[in-house]
Specification:
This protein has helices at residues 2-21, 49-66, 69-86, 111-128, 131-148, 181-197, 201-218, 243-260, 263-283, 305-322, 325-342, 374-388; strands at 47-48, 97-98, 104-106, 109-110, 149-150, 153-154, 157-158, 179-180, 219-220, 225-226, 229-230, 236-238, 240-242, 293-295, 298-300, 303-304, 354-355. The protein is mostly helical. The protein has one domain (2-388): Glycosyltransferase, CATH 1.50.10. The strands form seven sheets. A three-stranded antiparallel beta sheet has the order 1-2-3. The chain has a three-stranded antiparallel beta sheet with strand order 8-11-12. Strand 2 and strand 3 (104-106) form a beta hairpin. The longest helix is centred in the C-terminal third of the chain and has 21 residues, at 263-283. The mean pLDDT is 97.
Length: 392
């Protein structure tokens, strides 16, 4: 794994970091929001709050790892754009989308976007100690708790004034769902990182609340997987198994209980996250990559960039818990698959969005509102730090 950690450091330094660095918009702020399959930059594309927050997280995390001053300058640049252009000063929270000059283009508020704002801002605070950024992250936490949470969990999509709307952006396959595993997972992820720097009792209670929702409502004890889409009462709205989210959650849930330092909830959580990882290893894993998902029993055989990245971390996390060599071999094999097929080796390339079962890339954007340096950049940073025995 030391050799793999060295390879991942090189991947960070020589491909991922340079690629995203060149997307800095010097004139209008933030980062260009779209690069097509042929690596053409659209400098007038919309700029998404999720993409900007993930870029903020990436450059901040890379600076924490490497102390690269250019990464710090890019993190400052991303932070300024979030603060000055994406943050709604009047009604609070982050817009879904702004235009290329930073004016509001889609003023909806989504819980998912607020969570990634917290995630990026918390990592930026770790990199810089910027109290203003921490205060904005705390404000976003309070906004989520005040506007997005009801008696059953967290709701998803709202208009600019925080009136509830149908959850269009995070629903899939033609079924509108009031609650999603995906949003709850990334609220938990964001709250975990915030709690690491701000030991607030209400935040801790919210993390425990989310962990209990995962255990009681989202985890399928029979199937050893996480259910994905729900109505208000946590009834599933469509049968989907999202293998990438399963393996990603298996380590993000562990990270949450480790940060909490609560032995009771830690033991319960780590038991079923181990079951999730075992299920993926035994039933889904192949050295030829992790397939994307199964919808109503039909499997999507494509290999998506983020699913592969999260599998490397998830399997390595399971190995650290068990010393079971099957997991370390799976982690290493998926990394080899990524190197062979998912990394875009063209001059100036990054990673393909996804490839088919034969490793052929789909003609999909290399950058757009969801395609970001968060999953692959984090995979590299996580593995490097875990091999070193530290945390970013």
């Amino acid at each position: 794994m030391e050799k793999i950690a060295q390879e991942m450091y090189k991947e960070l330094k020589d491909r991922i970091f340079p690629f995203w660095s060149k997307l800095k918009d010097e004139k209008n702020g933030g980062f260009y929001g779209y690069v097509d399959y042929d690596l053409n930059i659209d400098n007038k594309a919309l700029k998404g709050s999720i993409l900007n927050s993930r870029i903020l997280w990436f450059f901040s995390a890379f600076y924490c790892l490497d102390k690269d001053e250019k990464a710090l300058e890019l993190a400052h640049h991303a932070y300024k754009f979030l603060r000055d252009n994406i943050l709604d000063k009047e009604n609070k929270g982050l817009y879904w989308m702004v235009d290329y000059i930073g004016e509001p283009a889609d003023t909806r508020k989504h819980t998912y976007s607020q969570a990634f704002g917290i995630y990026g801002l918390a990592q930026y605070y770790k990199a810089t100690g910027n109290e203003e950024a921490l205060n904005i992250a705390i404000d976003l936490f309070n906004i989520i708790e005040r506007n997005c949470r009801d008696e059953n969990g967290y709701l998803e999509e709202f208009d600019r004034n925080w009136n509830l709307k149908e959850n269009y952006e995070l629903s899939e396959h033609g079924v509108i769902s009031s609650r999603t595993m995906n949003t709850h997972l990334h609220i938990l992820e964001a709250y975990t990182l915030l709690y690491d720097i701000w030991k607030n009792s209400n935040l801790k209670k919210s993390i425990i609340y989310l962990l209990n929702l995962f255990k009681d409502k989202i985890y399928s004890e029979d199937g050893k997987y996480l259910k994905v889409f729900f109505n208000d009462n946590w009834d599933t709205t469509i049968d989907i198994k999202s293998y990438g989210h399963d393996i990603e959650a298996s380590w993000l849930l562990d990270r949450a209980v480790d940060v909490l330092c609560d032995e009771g909830i830690k033991n319960t959580t780590k038991k079923y996250t181990m079951e999730i990882a075992e299920n993926i290893l035994n039933n889904i894993y192949s050295p030829d990559g992790i397939v994307n998902e199964a919808v109503e029993g039909k499997t999507d055989l494509s290999r998506v960039w983020w699913v592969q990245a999260e599998s490397v971390v998830g399997f390595f996390n399971a190995y650290q818990k068990t010393n079971d060599v099957r997991f370390i071999e799976a982690s290493k094999n998926i990394w080899e698959y990524i190197k062979r097929y998912v990394i875009d080796k063209r001059d100036g390339g990054e990673w393909y969005w996804k490839v088919d079962e034969n490793g052929k890339p789909f003609n999909m954007p290399i950058v757009e509102p969801w395609k970001c340096p968060y999953h692959n950049g984090r995979m590299c940073i996580e593995i490097i730090e875990r091999v070193k025995g530290n945390e970013v």
